[in-house]
Structure formats: C-alpha cells, structure tokens
C-alpha cells in the first residue's frame, strides 16, 4: 500500500479471473473510511486495519465487487453500487443501491458515466483539491489514458468510445486535480488537464 496523497492509500493486486493487476484505494479519513473497488492489499485485512476501519465501499460498476464481502464481514463495511447493477448480486452479497447524483459517505458525489453499462459511475471526492475516481471507462497504463480492449466495448466500438469521452467531458468544469483508476496507476496533479486531453477538450 502506498500513500499517494496525505491519507489516500493505493495498491494493486493481481485479479485471478482476468490475469491482470487491478487497483484499489482506501481513504480512512473520508466519510468514516471509504474503500473504492476493493481487493485485499498485501498484508490483507490486517494491513487495512492498521490505517482504519472502512465504513463504506463504493463500486464504480457491478463487476467491481471484488473482495467487498471480506471487508463487510471484517469491518461491517456497507457496500454501495448503482441501482442499475443490483441484478448482479444474487449470491447473498449485501449491497446498497444508489442513484447518480447521490452523495455517498457524506460528501462523495456519484457521477453518471454510463455508456459501457448503465451503472458505470465516477466518484468525485472533495479532498486535496478534488479527486475523480474512475472505473472501466478509462484505464491508465503507461503515460496515456485509454480504453479497455475493444472486445469489451460492445458491437459499436467507435460509438462507445465517443460516448465515454462525451460523458466525461460533462465533468471537466468540476473541481478536481487528481485521478484514480480501477485499472491503472493514479494521476497525482494535473488530472483535469489529462482528462480534458483524453476527452478531446481544451
């Protein structure tokens, strides 16, 4: 686990189902403790406990339940996913629905991305000049922001890519300086400009 900003902890873990590293974060001082798209870090739940006990887990989409159940059982963490993704949770997972526009964990705004799936959500976190947490809509490996492989973008790949860019462009007037990703390394500083460049907006 790495502290990428004061009180913002980030880590990667190898997702056994896709054979790729995926990314999670924990903010122990935000909203009673918030994890986003959580998997267990090195050191497991004990490593998390050393920093705090997360009250809430926020999922950017229904596919990112990951290890949320482990957090719920250990800490009583309440898991949140957009209402449009609730059909995914049929095996006893306890998940609370939200709607786009809701404020979660007190101060985190759930922003509609959609396009990839109805519940695709970005989270605007009002700390350190603003952090925007993104799910599957944008990945960040290497320098450039990009898309997941075309085979995951549906039948009309150009339309989906354009739709994602248009959706994210709506939020470029919001206050944020940093980007977090479910798939990729964080962008610390200059995040709004990087996202504007990706979305084709100056």
Helix-strand layout with pairing:
Elements: E1 2-5, E2 8-15, E3 20-27, E4 34-36, H1 44-49, E5 56-58, H2 68-75, E6 78-82, E7 95-98, E8 103-104, E9 108-112, E10 121-125, E11 131-134, E12 139-140, E13 145-146, H3 157-169, E14 178-181, H4 191-199
Parallel strand pairs: 4-5, 5-6, 6-7, 11-14
Antiparallel strand pairs: 1-2, 2-3, 3-4, 8-9, 9-10, 10-11, 12-13
How would you describe the overall organization of this protein?
The chain has 202 residues and is α/β, with parallel strands linked by helices. It has a single domain (2-199), classed as Metallo-beta-lactamase, Chain A. Helices cover 18% and strands 29% of the residues. The protein has four helices and 14 strands. It has helices at 44-49, 68-75, 157-169, 191-199, and strands at 2-5, 8-15, 20-27, 34-36, 56-58, 78-82, 95-98, 103-104, 108-112, 121-125, 131-134, 139-140, 145-146, 178-181. Strands 1-2-3-4-5-6-7 form a seven-stranded mixed β-sheet, covered by helices on one side. Strands 8-9-10-11-14 form a five-stranded mixed β-sheet, with helices on one face. Strands 12-13 form a two-stranded antiparallel sheet. Strand 1 and strand 2 (8-15) form a beta hairpin. The longest helix has 13 residues, at 157-169. The protein is globular and about 45 Å long. It starts with a strand and ends with a helix.
């Amino acid at each position: 686990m790495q502290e990428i900003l004061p009180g913002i902890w980030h880590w990667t873990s190898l997702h056994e189902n896709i054979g790729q590293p995926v990314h999670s974060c924990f903010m122990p001082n935000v909203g009673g403790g918030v994890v986003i798209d959580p998997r267990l870090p090195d050191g497991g739940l004990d490593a998390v406990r050393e920093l705090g006990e997360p009250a809430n887990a926020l999922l950017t989409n229904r596919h990112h339940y990951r290890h949320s159940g482990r957090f719920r059982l250990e800490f009583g963490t309440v898991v949140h996913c957009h209402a449009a993704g609730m059909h995914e949770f049929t095996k006893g997972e306890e998940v609370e629905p939200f709607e786009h526009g809701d404020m979660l964990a007190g101060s985190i705004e759930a922003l509609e991305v959609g396009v990839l799936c109805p519940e695709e959500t970005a989270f605007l976190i009002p700390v350190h000049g603003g952090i925007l947490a993104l799910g599957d809509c944008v990945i960040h490996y290497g320098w450039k922001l990009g898309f997941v492989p075309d085979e995951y973008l549906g039948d009309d790949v150009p339309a989906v890519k354009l739709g994602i860019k248009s959706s994210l462009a709506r939020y470029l007037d919001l206050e944020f300086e940093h980007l977090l990703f479910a798939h990729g390394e964080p962008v610390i500083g200059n995040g709004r400009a990087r996202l504007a460049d990706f979305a084709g907006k100056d």
